[in-house]
From TrEMBL:
GO cellular component, one term: membrane
Membrane topology: Multi-pass membrane protein
Keyword Transmembrane: yes
Source lineage: Bacteria, Bacillati, Actinomycetota, Actinomycetes, Micrococcales
Positions of the Amino acid permease/ SLC12A domain: 17-438
Gene3D superfamilies, alphabetized: Amino acid/polyamine transporter I, HUPs
Keyword set, alphabetical order: Amino-acid transport, Membrane, Transmembrane, Transmembrane helix, Transport
Protein's GO biological process: amino acid transport; transmembrane transport
The protein's name: GABA permease
TM stretches of this protein: 17-38, 44-64, 84-106, 126-146, 158-176, 196-217, 238-259, 287-309, 329-350, 362-383, 395-417, 423-441
Length: 605
């Protein structure tokens, strides 16, 4: 594992994080899908956006309360784990990862279709692959490169909406050349709500998904210089962003264009700009939509890789996912996530109507499950948290928290009743069930691990190699060393694998700082372990090893030439080393191996 230099401690600066938070909720769905919502609802469609915006604001406020009171790299997956149990943390993290890797593939295909506007004769799939390669490369360079690209991508989206808000307002007020004060489209053509009041809820599912992404700022904040401040600021600013970018722009669209106009079907913003008289509106807005797609692809890759990082930190994904290079980039996690994205692109080219459609539908309602667990977690943790730690509070708790939870549940019920999106709900529930089954399988495997058998005293050890990852309970370790070294004259060598997972720092540090923090934590544990042994009169030395325990053990064995190996782990129900058969595989080195289970609270592996 490479060490991250001092310059990486601030992977994302406040300028980048602010723009990520601003642009996070603006996806291609706003620029393209809003026309469908207006046609479904009527001129009052902005009320649908208002309802969904309030829902997102409430969720973000609850998330901010938990994040500021309990800063964590795992964000909402950690809060679900704390509030509801390991099953919730495991499933919500894997569901969120699954959601974003599918989104990455989908956005790559969507981006290629946008580019086909200018290059109609080029097949979609090679363009999609090129976009995937570009965004994967951006994330692999450094966290700062992701932040810089996202700053400009989000900046273009925000600028386009602001220009539309300014120009559109001038036009409807009659202050723009060719414009005149006219709000008749709000009531003409059948009235403000031509399809009835319940039509406001008809577009809720579409709108809620167009706003997904606000929570990314809470994940990115872990790699900023002041996570607590960044999360609180992102949660507070989401009110302004949704009010202006969504509600404001949809209101202007409804004023400028008749709700039943065919021009709304394709790209309402293009149609509005053309009516205002902006030249090359189709080219300009397609460029903006492409930017929105690339932004979503870029942030989706980032988010998916960081969720894998968090899962590995919780020992629920391969430990390699938490390894980082010298620039603080979790390369393996990024490449793993991008592979799924590449597969989605290939599947979209080979089987767009079956396999690719299945993948999209199986992740369609996932984000609502995530939001539902955020709400439930906030309610549970609020009652457990001391008031003094709540620097940011959910408004009117518990009433608003309960109402938000019920509202999300109501959206899920509406999905079940709507034939057009019902399949998304059931397949997404199937996805959740699959991850819960995987969680139970993992638990069952741990439960079947054999009980360790106490070794017979040998009394002949001269060179003892101890593999551990923390200061161990002296009763367990010293007792075992007394059995294998009857004379007390053996020489000891302690090897501590420098693993961000086993040291626990992956759970508290972002990717950009986890390497240095791991080395510090592992060195502290080595020093404390050596002090413990030396205070008991034993001759002991040691060193840090590879983050993979077996490689660390093999290297230490070659260097130290022991005649006895002692591997110290937690009990089977908690030990990742036992889960991956480290003890049994250590015996292949040809040296007698003793396994010690350290039941003291200070042990960690």
């Amino acid at each position: 594992m490479g060490g991250a230099g001092p310059e990486l401690k601030k992977g994302l600066n406040q300028r980048q994080l602010t723009m990520i938070a601003m642009g996070g909720v603006i996806g291609a769905g706003l620029f393209v899908g809003s026309g469908v919502v207006i046609q479904t609802t009527g001129p009052g469609a902005f009320l649908t956006y208002t309802l969904c915006g309030v829902l997102i604001i409430m969720v973000m406020r609850m998330l901010a309360e938990m994040a500021v009171a309990n800063p964590s790299t795992g964000s909402f997956s950690d809060y679900a784990r704390s509030a509801l149990g390991d099953w919730a943390g495991f499933s919500v993290a894997w569901l969120y990862w699954y959601f974003w890797v599918i989104v990455v593939g989908f956005e790559a295909v969507a981006g290629a279709k946008v580019i086909n506007f200018w290059l109609p004769d080029v097949p979609t799939w090679p363009i999609s692959l090129v976009l995937m390669i570009l965004m994967t490369g951006t994330n692999l360079i450094s966290v700062s490169s992701f932040g810089e690209f996202e700053f400009w991508f989000a900046g273009i989206k925000v600028a386009a909406i602001i220009v539309f808000l300014v120009v559109g307002t001038l036009f409807v007020l009659g202050l723009w050349p060719g414009g005149h004060l006219d709000f008749s489209n709000l009531t003409s053509h059948g009235g403000f709500l031509p399809k009835g009041g319940w039509a406001i809820t008809a577009g809720v599912v579409t709108v809620i998904f167009s706003m997904v992404g606000a929570e990314i700022a809470t994940i990115a904040a872990a790699e900023s210089d002041n996570p607590e401040k960044a999360v609180a600021k992102a949660a507070n600013s989401v009110i302004t962003r949704i009010s202006l970018f969504f509600v404001g722009s949809i209101f202007l669209l409804a004023v400028i264009l008749p709700w039943n106009s065919d021009d709304l079907a394709a790209s309402p913003y293009v149609s509005a700009f053309e009516k205002i008289g902006i030249p090359f509106a189709d080219h300009l807005m397609n460029a903006v939509v492409l930017t929105a797609v690339l932004s979503c692809l870029n942030s989706g890759m980032y988010t998916a890789s960081r969720m894998l990082f968090v899962l590995a930190a919780r020992r629920e994904a391969p430990a390699a996912m938490v390894s980082v290079n010298s620039r603080g980039v979790p390369v393996v996690a990024i490449l793993t996530s991008s592979v799924i994205g590449f597969l989605c692109v290939i599947v979209a080219a080979i089987s767009p109507d079956t396999v690719f459609s299945f993948l999209l539908n199986s992740s369609g309602a996932v984000i609502l499950f995530v939001y539902l667990l955020i709400c439930i977690s906030q309610i549970v943790l609020r009652y457990r948290t001391d008031e003094s730690r709540l620097k940011v509070k959910m408004w009117l708790f518990p009433a608003l928290s309960a109402l938000t939870t019920l509202a999300i549940f109501a959206v899920l019920v509406q999905m079940a009743l709507d034939k057009s999106v019902r399949i998304q709900l059931w397949l997404s529930l199937l996805s959740w069930a699959v991850f819960l089954i995987l969680f139970l399988i993992n638990r069952a495997r741990i439960a079947r691990l054999p009980e360790p058998v106490a070794p017979e005293p040998t009394g002949v050890a001269h060179r003892v190699l101890v593999l551990a990852n923390q200061t161990l309970g002296s009763d367990e370790l010293i007792g075992e060393l007394g059995r294998i070294d009857a004379t007390g004259k053996a020489e000891y060598y302690v090897c501590v694998p420098a693993s961000p997972v086993e040291t626990g720092v992956a759970a508290t540090h972002g990717a950009v700082s986890v390497a240095d923090a791991t080395v510090r934590a592992a060195q502290e544990r080595l020093d404390l372990t050596l002090d413990t042994l030396q205070s008991n009169g034993l001759a002991a030395g040691g060193a840090l090893g590879d983050y993979r325990p077996l490689r660390a053990l093999q290297a230490a064995t070659e260097e130290f030439k022991p005649d006895q190996i002692v591997v110290v782990t937690l009990p089977a129900s908690e030990s990742v080393w036992q889960r991956f058969d480290v003890v049994d595989r250590a015996r292949t080195l040809g040296v007698p191996v003793t396994h010690v289970e350290a039941k003291s609270l200070s042990a960690s592996v």
